[in-house]
Amino acid sequence: MKDVFLSNCEKSFLQRIVSEGHRLDGRNYNESRRLNISFGSEYGSCIVSLGETKVLAQVSCEVTQPKQIRPNEGILYINVEISPMAAPQFEANRQTDLTVYLNRLLEKCYKDSKCIDLESLCIVVEEKVWSLRVDVKILNHGGNLIECSSIATLTSLAHFKRPDVTRSGDSVIIHTIAEKDPIPTVLYHYPVCMTFAIFNNDVLLSDPSFIEESVCTSSTEEGINTGGGLLVVGMNQYKELCLLDLNGAALYDSNIVHKAIVSAADRSKEIVDLVKKIIISDDTMRQKRSKINFADIITSEHMLSLTQKELTIQLKNYNVDDMTSKTERMQVEDDVKSEPSKYDVVPSLPQTAEIVSKKGGSQWIEISSDSEEDQ
Amino acid sequence: MGMEKNVSKDFKLKPMKCELNFLSKSDGSTILSQGDTVAVVSVNGPLDIKSTSQSIEKSTLEVLYCTKGGKPSVADRYKENVIRQTCETAILGSLYPRTGITVTIQELEDYGGLLSCCLNCTCLALLNSGVSMRCVYAAVTCAVDESGDIVLEPPKHQLQTARAVMTFVYDSREKSLVTSFTEGMFSEDTYKEALARCHAASDLIFSFYRDIVSKYANVI
Question: Which keywords does the record carry (chain B) (predicted)?
Fold first, then answer.
């Protein structure tokens, strides 16, 4: 299945209602969908949902050799994957333009803005550094993947804790979480990418949905561009610009960028505050040793959901069978031994028997020969 | 022996929790948790696929298993294969010739019994997508621990010390075995006993399926 095509009536309807001041889902121009963040049981795993868009992010770490040019810095690697789970038009194990674009944007936003203290990831200069790998998986593509995956990357990086390390002479000991408290990643600032859809060169929609994204970047049937596009603004909580990216038609009014930056500044503050708050509350929950699991995102009051506590099963009827099978087993085992077999069944522990190959090659040959099988 | 102690005791399957239609873009999707193990499955299809992979007899089933982080491994491909073959027996593929059905599985948490959780979740997602099926199926995992006892739905620490881990899949119509996937060493009798125990446990999973379908079918 290839790309999703929009019908002309969909396009023109959306263009018309946007120019009249409405949006398809009833939001205001600068209103975002509901942001929801939930954590998994491991450090650095989270699912971020922005409306219907859902993204899973997982941070993992390993010790590697640093790059030659930066011998005292750790490595940050971001990998975005879009599987057919996101939407049916995506193919499995295939790099699309969207994957590359998302990967590049996230790298620009988190690597090039130097928000992570990479020097703190160094263990031994020129020999051993931590390499952090962020795996971003798109679960559901409901529009505005950029913002959602950027929040997911930021949250998982901020939530992640790497194991503690001690150096004794030349050897490096990596402690498990049970041995020593893990160390959180140091973030200098929290950049977030935000997307704005531009309609007719003057209207800015924040957090565009899938259909709004596709309409604003598509051209009309005559091939005339309607002056729409996607503007990505990366900004941290100090209202510092980290990234700007424009997709679609060229801008002819620079004021629209200013407008976007002003509204991104407020939004980024909101998002970063929420991310920080939710990480702190998650941390206190973990310190109270309450279990946090992705199972928590399954709602129970939904019509299409079902929760069943302990499912009990009585295996009493096996009482008799077990006893008989046990006695039978002894006989069976005796039988096996009496037959000429290439294996010996040696009773080792209750319920199990080990199969040990018999010593002596003559029987081996006899068994494998065809004449033996014919008998 | 440890056996007698266990027999009189009631066995408990881990609490199950699921939500259908978890993802909006897929034709069918489910998130299922069995204890602490969680998986999400999305089903898309029947849809148009490349002509090279089309079959004139039945729909082509494609199963993709994604781990939570890191690179794909050979073990994942193996799991994919087990799940694909199980699904193929359940789906009435001959109704949809020259099409493809894509099943994508995303692991979220692994605390033991991930394969059976993925299989059950796939079955629920297939039910949710409305693809015609011959039967539904239920998967149960059990382990043979060090002393030789059979443990249903073992937790992760027990799996690491277990002598063998077995996963059985049963169909709903004849309650017959569809798939058997085993690791480790065990005797034939242990296998038979595990088979019978998991068979009894699979009834609970079928009733779970029935409960969820009847819950939303009432509203429709």
Answer: Exosome, Nucleus, rRNA processing
Q: Are B114 and B44 in contact (CB under 8 A)?
A: no
- Sheet containing A241-248, strands listed edge to edge, beginning at the edge strand earlier in sequence: A203-206, A192-199, A229-235, A241-248
Per-residue DSSP letter, A187: B
The model's confidence at residue A338, banded by pLDDT at 50, 70 and 90, is: very low
A311 contact residues in B (CB cutoff 8 A): 12-16, 204, 208
Instruction: Give me chain B's average pLDDT, please.
Output: 88
Q: Tell the residue number behind the tokens 């699904």, with chain if given.
A: B87
Helix (H) or strand (E) holding B19: strand B16-20
Give A119's DSSP letter. Answer: G
Whether residue A352 and residue B190 make contact (CB cut-off 8 A), yes or no, is yes
Residue A321 C-beta-side C-alpha neighbours within 13 Å = 12
Return the pLDDT at A172.
Answer: 86
How many Å lie between the alpha carbon of A257 and the closest alpha carbon of chain B?
32
Question: What integer pLDDT is reported at residue A373 of this predicted model?
Answer: 43
Q: Which residues of A touch B152 (CB under 8 A)?
A: 313
In chain A the first and final C-alpha atoms are separated, in Å, by 58
CA distance A331 to A349: 16
Question: Which residues from B are below 8 Å from A328, CB to CB?
Answer: 189
Token code pair at residue A134: 């962020």
What are the two backbone dihedrals, phi and then psi, of residue B156, each rounded to the nearest 5 degrees?
A: -65, -40
Q: Any bridge partners for residue A192, and if so which?
A: A235
Element (H, E) at A13: helix A8-19
Half-sphere exposure of A109 (CA within 13 A, CB side): 28
Quote the ipTM score. Answer: 0.89
Predicted confidence at residue A360, as pLDDT, reads: 47
pLDDT for res A179: 86
Indicate the domain borders of chain B. 2-219
Query: CA–CA separation, A127 vs B47, rounded Å?
Result: 51
Note the pLDDT of residue A369: 45
Q: What parts of chain B have a pLDDT lower than 70?
A: 1-11, 70, 220
Distance separating alpha carbons of residues A18 and A206, to the nearest angstrom: 12
Residue B162 near residue B186, CB atoms below 8 Å: no
Record: contact B47-A88, CB cut-off 8 A: yes
Report CA A148 to chain centroid distance, whole Å: 11
CA-to-CA distance for A18 and A247, rounded, in angstroms?
A: 19
Name the residue type at position B102: T
Q: Return the residue in A85, A307, A324, A349 with the most chain B beta carbons within 10 A, the one to mutate for interface testing.
A: A85
Q: What is the mean pLDDT of residues A250-257?
A: 83
CATH architecture for segment(s) B2-219: 2-Layer Sandwich (3.30)
Kindly list the structural domains of chain A, giving each domain's residue range(s) and its CATH number in brackets, ordered by start: 8-192+252-303 (3.30.230.70)
State phi, psi for B145 to the nearest 5 degrees.
-85, -175
